[in-house]
Amino acid sequence: MTFPRNDGFSQFAQCFHALGDNIERVVKGKRDTVELALTCLFAEGHLLIEDVPGTGKTTLARCLASSIEAGFARVQFTPDLLPSDITGVTVYRQNTGTFEFLPGPVFANIVLGDEINRASPKTQSALLEVMEERRVTADGKTHPVPRPFMVLATQNSVDMGGTYQLPEAQLDRFLMRVTVGYPDHASEVAVLTGAAASTTPESLSTIATAQHVAGFIQVASQVQVAEPLYDYLVRVVAATRSLPDVRLGASPRGSIALLRAIRVRAASQSRVYAVPEDVKALAGHVLAHRLILTPEAELSGRTSADVIAEVLATVPVPQGGGARV
């Protein structure tokens, strides 16, 4: 796709919504979830998609990869998967008498980790380390992964037998955790119609290249954030640490993740500045999976989403919306 010569934010918004429209040709009726995935992409974050089987978790990831002309790799996580199966391995070449590093699937722009909770903690840690460091070290040599780089991991919320739940410290590596959910009646009919017409992730058009995405990541990073909005964002995150129902609140990493996400949301709406509504729209998706509730709160049926909603309802919004820079 050719983007017209215009200011960077208009081009960003055009690309963002063109990608959303393209993915929605297959993933019907889930525009909000699609846009959250795109927000993760342009915020240089990683996405955990958690839901019951058959709701389109893997399909969403494949559609995103098909819409971008970039390297894509899929890893099916199983109990016998080894860390080297993800990161790569060093082999000895007898004909040259040298050692050569063979990159694993993690050396792609978009990496789909299917059913990440079915692999051992050691293998999970190998992927999560690359997500954080964006490089692999083998035999004393550092091998950077390509940019842009995004991991989309899926896990089922049922059939947990023989799985290894991601520890909270590792969940923190994901910028967002989302659910897809069941489609409504009209959307499910559209899914069947699309399947009959052979509309698959592989049949989608390419909307942008890896170079486009890298350039738009830089555009999003230039969104202006006023001092009052910085203050508001930090107050929201800090409030998660002081509630009696929360055993562990969001860390400064959560603040940084939320900042990156709100910049992308502003740019997707052709705005050069962020506003409190951006924080309110994304706080739940960025922060909820970083909280650990007390056992009493969990037994009473309280969720992390409830905590974030309470925080947003009680933390005062800055005067003037915090948009002035």
How would you describe this structure in keywords?
13 strands, single chain, 325 residues, globular
Structure description:
This protein is an alpha/beta fold. Helix content is 43%, strand content 17%. The chain contains 13 helices and 13 strands. The chain has helices at 8-23, 31-42, 57-66, 84-87, 121-133, 168-171, 185-196, 210-221, 227-239, 252-268, 276-287, 295-299, 304-314, and strands spanning 47-51, 68-69, 72-76, 88-93, 98-103, 110-114, 135-138, 141-144, 150-156, 176-178, 208-209, 246-248, 292-293. The strands form five sheets. It has a five-stranded parallel β-sheet with strand order 3-6-9-1-10. The chain has a two-stranded parallel sheet with strand order 2-11. Strand 7 (135-138) and strand 8 (141-144) form a beta hairpin. The chain starts with 7 loop residues before the first helix and ends in an 11-residue tail after the last helix. The relative contact order is 0.16. Residues 2-6 have low confidence and may be disordered.
Draw up the topology in text:
Elements: H1 8-23, H2 31-42, E1 47-51, H3 57-66, E2 68-69, E3 72-76, H4 84-87, E4 88-93, E5 98-103, E6 110-114, H5 121-133, E7 135-138, E8 141-144, E9 150-156, H6 168-171, E10 176-178, H7 185-196, E11 208-209, H8 210-221, H9 227-239, E12 246-248, H10 252-268, H11 276-287, E13 292-293, H12 295-299, H13 304-314
Parallel strand pairs: 1-9, 1-10, 2-11, 3-6, 6-9
Antiparallel strand pairs: 4-5, 7-8, 12-13
What oligomeric state do the depicted chains represent? single chain
| Biggest beta sheet attributes | 5 strands, parallel
Number of strands: 13
* SSE sequence, one letter per element: HHEHEEHEEEHEEEHEHEHHEHHEHH
Helix content: 40-55%
Low-confidence stretches: 2-6
Estimated share of beta-strand residues:
15-25%
| Major sheet: arrangement of strands | 3-6-9-1-10
The termini sit apart by: 34 Å
- Approximate shape: globular
Count of discrete alpha- or pi-helical segments spanning 4 or more residues:
13
The assigned structural class equals alpha/beta
Give the averaged pLDDT, no decimals: 88
Global Rg: 20 Å
